[in-house]
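Recap from last week: sequence in, structure out.
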Amino acid sequence: MKRALGVAFALLCCVGGAASVRAADVKPVASVTLPCEAKRLVISQTGQSVAAFCDNKSVRVVDVASGRVLFSQNGDSQITTADFSRDGTLFGLGFWDGTVQVVPLTGGEPHKWKAGGHRVSKVRFLRDGHSVLAASLGEAGQIWDFSGTPKVVASLQSDFSSPAAVALSPDGSLLATAGGDTVIRIYDTSTWKLLHENRKATTLEMFDIDFTPDGKAFVTGGADDHAMVIDAATGEVTHKLGGIPGVIADVSILGDGTHAAVEYEDVEDLSKPPAWAMWNLQTQKAETLAGMDKYAAHRIVNGKLWLASTNETSLQIFEFN
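Predicted structure tokens:
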């Protein structure tokens, strides 16, 4: 994927409001040479590291500023998912055989254990620096404490499936989950008490959740024909964001708490690139975001939407204004 540094893309055609067209620049923020060719990337929440899923099936974690490889894993272990801790000091991997590995990127021995009997579909770090949510396919997610010998400290609830969507509130006090059983659940992470359970919001699976920066609400979406804004204090839907066709695969709320970038996939034709829209959560209107298929990864970093593209071993990172 080749992308020039001076590139720009456009926000086109309002949904639910008057039509408008305006140019939106993407500002280059970093350029680094990767140790391999990679089309799949994970950007850390700090923006300081990037995990490259190499074409040879290996994974390399690279320091963005220096290009130094912080961690490498060969391709023999069938990695199924990976993510960084919020502060970027830990890197977690899930494997096909149900194993989870947590790697301290600043030094120290990694932790590795069997978390389930099936492939790991989710690895998400809690804010305490020594706990992680691990979910294996078809199994309820579990909270593991890896400060010593890894052990289960809590099990999440599910009617019949693993959580497809999970998100922590910015202060780490709440965990929201949703999945194939179509139930939205909110937990208190200090006690793992189930605070709210919404069984009426949708009848279809949800695939992503993201909290607003103040932690008072979150947006979730999936196979339904709309995204939903949920009140974190009650678990109830406050409003729905509809009018754009496709299955919602990703929700990313910007630091202003007002705008959310939402990715839509055409399940009738997966050869088509996903469509993107930028929703205004206050006006409940959206603008189509064109040109996102040029990027291999995105993440909210310091409240801004970061985008990454690769061309062979060259990685370019941009910030959307």
